[in-house]
Structure formats: C-alpha cells, structure tokens
Amino acid sequence: MTEHGDAPERRVTQRGLWFDEFEVGVVYEHRPGRTVTEADDVLFTTMTMNTQALHLDAHWAAQTEFGERLVNSMFTLATIVGMSTGQLTNGTIVANLGFSEVAFPAPLRHGDTLYGETRVIDKRASASRPGQGIVTLEHTGRDQRGEVVARAVRTVLMQGRPDGPGAL
User: Fold this and answer.
1) CATH classification of the domain holding 90
2) Residue 89 burial (10 A CB sphere; 0-12, 13-18, 19+)
3) Domain range holding 82?
4) Is residue 26 part of a domain?
5) Is residue 150 part of a domain?
6) What is the number of structural domains in the chain?
7) Are 87 and 80 in contact (CB under 8 A)?
8) Are the C-beta atoms of residues 102 and 152 closer than 8 Å to each other?
9) Is the pTM of this model over 0.85?
10) pLDDT tens for the chain, residues 1 to 168
11) Which of 3, 27, 78, 149 has the highest Cβ tally under 10 A?
C-alpha cells in the first residue's frame, strides 16, 4: 500500500540490457546529443596529456587544411561510448573486452553537436562464463549534419538476466 492509494507502488530502476535482451541488427539511438565546446576539448586533451597542436594551438591549427583546431578524436570516441551506457550497459556489463575497426572519417569541430547510435552486430553465450554472454556493438557518431565522425566496433561481456524468464 502506498500513500497514493491501495495499489502497490511500481518502481523502475534504469539499467542497461541483460545479455538475453540484446537483438542482433537493432540500432539504438542515444539522445540527447552533446554539443562539444572548446572547453570540453581543451580539458580532455590536457587531462590525457595529448599535446597535439591540432587541439591546443589555434595559430598553428589555423594554418592546416582544416583552418582551425579540431576536437580530440579520443574525446569523440569516449563520448559516443558514454552515450550508450544508460541504454545498453549500465549495471549489466561485466567487462569491456576491446575495440576494433576504430575510424574517424571526418573531423568534429568546436560547436558541433555529436549524436551517437549503436548497432548490435553479434552476440553469443560465453563458453567459459555461465550466465554471461559476449555482445559485439558498432558505435557510430554523427555531427548535426549527419556526417559520420567516428565509428568503432566494441566487444563487451554482459551479465545474463539474474532471474526470471530468459535467464541464462
């Protein structure tokens, strides 16, 4: 019984997906997008000790083919993976197993808005870890014009549903 009536209160805790909830071929769009500022880029770049002038030296970068500083590609990658966490892996991941096929086909610039999406490209039960499974995800980041600025394939070890229907 609750203070609002006789029915028991229904509660929902946000979490990622259990292994058995992943479906190959499904694309998850991660919203809202993230507008990347100069401060974001400079902070990330200096925190990670990346002294690349393309991120830090406006005068030098102005003389490149891009004409300005660009957002650190590792920030872009970290952000699109981070965008996926609430929907896909929050509280249900066991381990991040690795990345492959990482590419940055176009630059992200200060003031651009980054949007992420994740496609489930493979899944299989773990042969050595009962109740867990391996999921392969393709993360894609696009700017506000829809141009792909980052793509990475990531493999994760996921927990199976601990109880109920579909438990491993």
Assistant:
1) 3.10.129.10
2) buried
3) 19-36+70-159
4) yes
5) yes
6) 1
7) no
8) yes
9) yes
10) 556 667 889 887 879 999 999 999 999 999 999 999 999 999 999 999 999 999 999 999 999 999 999 999 999 999 999 999 999 999 999 999 999 999 999 999 999 999 999 999 999 999 999 999 999 999 999 999 999 999 999 999 999 998 754 444
11) 149
